[in-house]
UniProtKB/TrEMBL annotation:
A Pfam family that the UniProt record links to this protein: HTH_IclR
Annotated signal sequence range: none
Coiled coil: none
Lineage: Bacteria, Bacillati, Actinomycetota, Actinomycetes, Mycobacteriales
Family, per entry: Belongs to the ROK (NagC/XylR) family.
Domain HTH iclR-type: 20-62
Organism this protein belongs to: Nocardia huaxiensis
Annotated InterPro entries: ATPase_NBD (IPR043129), ROK (IPR000600), Tscrpt_reg_IclR_N (IPR005471), WH-like_DNA-bd_sf (IPR036388), WH_DNA-bd_sf (IPR036390)
Protein name as annotated: ROK family transcriptional regulator
Gene3D superfamilies according to UniProt: 3.30.420.40, Winged helix-like DNA-binding domain superfamily/Winged helix DNA-binding domain
Length: 428
């Protein structure tokens, strides 16, 4: 998204339009006076902005009226979640996993399809992604013609029309540059060793009118975990283990991807300067101690992981931990100390409220936490008021798609101008 220029009146209006819509989405139904008080905008501005949102079909007036003041009682405003829909697609090594969701985040349709794209063929992947978006539009046909279960009438006698596709968000492994082309800088899992302008490729196949975003799947999972937790917080870091260790950083409800799209890659935080050599070229990275491959090897389960996969090996490790097997306990103790060392570096740099352990780390959490707590005890004693919670992930394998949906939803709530005004159909 292009940042607004200082003094850009259109940009100011877009921001204020988003401010009003976000408040209605989070607190509605609510009266215009309530929106004005909460946002700090003048009542006249809120009236004009809410009229714009009604014209776009994103907001409607409730039938119930609110009194309590002088003059005619006002009709409270509420979100029309079915007006603006999004499609989120997660790319895995073999599949495209897709959901259609409304502006409230409710999932309306799910689909999974194999993509059969050979390594190093981003054009083929763009073809597959565009085809899957079209399939989602057709398969989720009912929501596209619905308006949140009711028709919202306009003063001129027209009826609000169909929902629109407001956003497509693609989540995948690899650093992503937030430029106009939504460039994936490198994606070793897919054999993309040079930058790929994936967002541009997919948007070109879909045609004009729908923004396409590409986000790192670890960042998407971190965003989902941030919004899944009831306690207010400023910042969260997700450390997630699958084939290696990835994750993401969320600050004030927004993904922090850094200058080159690689912020939130805790697997390559150094925890021992003289440690084993990592595939990244450095030594002593966290993944060399707490990554699944390293833990399985230390626990004597390396061959099980190679033969049966990570999930089976993790199940065997948990069973060994439950029976107190020494090799398993030592492997997880070592991983916990390494995680604590990484957490100390992360918290010193970012000062977040919460560290979330996901993937296999969530499965091993009861055995990781004691060694982490022992290692972190000295740091916590120095500043007991600086609370840092270490918790297991709560969303599981759906976190990446859930985060992609949340990213799309918040993008539309922040800039409602991407949704065009409603066409007017004469009443029959």
């Amino acid at each position: 998204m292009t940042p607004d220029r200082p003094g850009d009146a259109a940009g100011v209006r877009r921001r204020n339009l988003g401010l009003v819509l976000r408040h209605i989405a989070e607190h509605g139904p609510c009266a215009r006076t309530e929106v004005a008080a909460a946002t700090g905008l003048a009542h006249g501005s809120v009236t004009a902005l809410s009229s714009d949102l009604v014209e776009r079909g994103l907001v409607c007036e409730d039938d119930a009226q609110r009194g309590g003041g002088r003059g005619r009682p006002g009709r409270p405003l509420r979100l029309v979640p079915g007006r603006a829909l999004s499609i989120a697609v997660q790319i895995t090594s073999e599949e495209l996993r897709t959901v259609v969701a409304d502006l409230a985040g409710a999932v309306l349709w799910r689909g999974v399809v194999r993509h059969d794209c050979a390594p190093g063929t981003p054009e083929a992947m763009a073809d597959a992604l565009a085809a899957e978006v079209r399939r989602a539009q057709v398969s989720g046909a009912a929501p596209w013609s619905a308006d949140a279960g009711r028709e919202a009438r306009r003063d001129d006698g027209g009826v609000l029309s169909d929902a629109v596709l407001a956003r497509v968000v693609i989540a995948m492994a690899g650093p992503v540059c937030d430029d106009a082309a939504q460039t994936v800088l490198v994606a070793a899992d897919f054999g993309w060793l040079q930058p790929v302008r994936l967002g541009e490729l997919v948007a070109g196949r879909l045609g004009p009118g729908c923004p396409v975003d590409v986000i790192n799947d670890g960042n998407a999972a971190a965003l989902a975990e941030f919004h899944a937790r009831p306690r207010p917080r400023r910042g969260l870091v997700l450390i997630e283990a699958g084939t290696g260790i990835g994750g993401g950083v969320v600050v004030d409800g927004r993904i922090h991807a850094g200058s080159h799209g690689i912020a939130g890659e805790p697997g390559h935080v150094p925890v021992a300067w003289d440690g084993p050599e990592c595939v990244c070229g450095a030594r002593g990275c966290l993944v060399c101690y707490a990554g699944p491959e390293a833990v399985f090897e230390a626990a004597g389960l390396g061959e099980v992981a190679r033969r049966e996969g990570v999930s089976a090996a993790s199940g065997r490790l948990v069973a060994a931990l439950e029976t107190g097997e020494q090799a398993a306990a030592a492997a997880v103790e070592r991983a916990g100390r390494a995680l604590a060392a990484a957490v100390m570096s992360i918290s010193a740099l970012l000062d977040v409220d919460e560290i979330v352990l996901g993937g296999t780390l969530a499965q091993w959490f009861p055995w990781l936490l004691p060694s982490m707590d022992r290692t972190l005890a000295g740091r916590r004693a120095l500043a007991p008021a600086m609370r840092l919670d270490i918790v297991p992930a709560v969303l599981g394998p759906d976190a990446m798609l859930t985060g992609a949906v949340e990213f799309a939803r918040r993008a539309v709530l922040s800039d409602p101008s991407v949704v065009p005004p409603m066409p007017v159909r004469p009443l029959r």
